[in-house]
Structures
1.
Amino acid sequence: MLTVWGRRSSFNVQKVMWLIGELGLEHRHIPAGGEFGKLDTPDFAAMNPMRRVPVIDDDGTIVWESHAILRYLAARHGKGRFWSDDPPERSQADRWMDWSQTALQPDFLLGVFWGFYRTPEPQRDWPAIRRKIARCAEHFQLLDSVLADRPYLGGDALTLADIPAGTALYRYFELEIERPPVRHVEAWYRRLQERPAYRAGVMVPFGELRGRLDP
Ligand SMILES: N[C@@H](CCC(=O)N[C@@H](CS)C(=O)NCC(=O)O)C(=O)O
């Protein structure tokens, strides 16, 4: 049996819940982190010394770090569908996953989502927020040019390449911020919204997080 720990409002948990939905895996979900706590218990620290969510236990195999979990689940249960066995093809997914984690996520999730949305209005650092919004506009324009000739980041079908960056789309398009027109990204977002696993795992209303700097 697969068990997943993590609150559904967590961006990193959402990536994992989306893939679990795509794979149709039976699982048990245990809310943890934020208001649900549990991360400071010895049992949780024994699973993940970083005391962060998501964490999974797949029949005794414990994995933490969202991208490590995505790769593990795709390799273990995906039969090459989301993360190819062929190294050149697999690198298509890996490069977009790494780019999302090291470029898009710091600018969008930390810079914009935390800097703007999760920070109470009087504490917002507007020059920094504007710089990060502009960086995100550049990131999404770059993705727009890539998606001009393919429906998904890795090519013709959904793969792990889409999951980290695709998870950012719901919040990016819901926030009241300036965005450049990015019609290929918007078409990709519409394609993702047609997937029940995306709607269930990622399109989780986040109003409760506004102006809250606690986890
Ligand atoms: N690099 C880690 C980051 C994990 C992380 O920072 N998770 C956040 C939620 S997105 C967390 O556990 N925050 C503490 C909390 O929710 O209480 C990953 O990708 O899994």
2.
Amino acid sequence: MRIDVFTLFPEAFEWFAGQRHVTNALAAGHALACVNYRETTPLSGGQVDDMPFGGGAGMVLRVDVVEAALRARYEADPVELRTRRRVIALTPSGRLLDDALVDELAAEPALTLLCGRYEGFDERIVEHFATEAVSIGRYVLAGGELAAMVLADAVLRKLPGALGHEESALEESYSAALEGAPEYPHYTRPAQWRGWSVPEVLLSGHHARVHEWRREQSRLRAQAQQRGHDHPV
Ligand SMILES: C[S@@+](CC[C@H](N)C(=O)[O-])C[C@H]1O[C@@H](n2cnc3c(N)ncnc32)[C@H](O)[C@@H]1O
């Protein structure tokens, strides 16, 4: 998997690139690169954005600037590029990122992530250069960098070798192993703390009962989420 992130703030990814699962993935042959729109802008003074037609506050990332950055990186017309590579525009109005989409993206050989800033993209970028628009939630961030990190994090940890224990990625929230439900609760030592005890079944050593209890907890959490609570109450 090769992930290219197009951004105005490549330095924002320095911390992310140093995280263990990311360094593991890179050591296993995967790649993460940042491309700065500003470095290839055809406009003078490093300009990358402009005022919105029709008026209004904020600046809009220009289509010619994004085209220049994509052409320089891939030596191809971005309109043709998207027929052979997944190009994702990160935007609050896109398809919501979930575990199914992460699985789908983790199976790709390469991803291009386009980060917006300010008021967002000139819509022609999304329409003609991107294969899709993806949102990480129904709220608005200042820029696409955190959204790109969220997406890349979720994708990279699915890749073989990224996590220390491969099993930890199999049975976790929203996985097929849990039928799409949230994961069950975990506890560790001490078994007693301020009178808060660990559920007895987890100390029983009875694997079948532990398994059944965990599935039940998972189902309860799914029902609670459907009712709009984060945990069963
Ligand atoms: C301030 S936002 C633009 C918001 C836009 N004017 C709107 O109301 O939809 C700037 C950039 O942050 C990124 N962004 C913000 N919220 C996001 C979200 N929930 N998911 C993905 N990207 C997001 C996008 O790349 C966007 O172009």
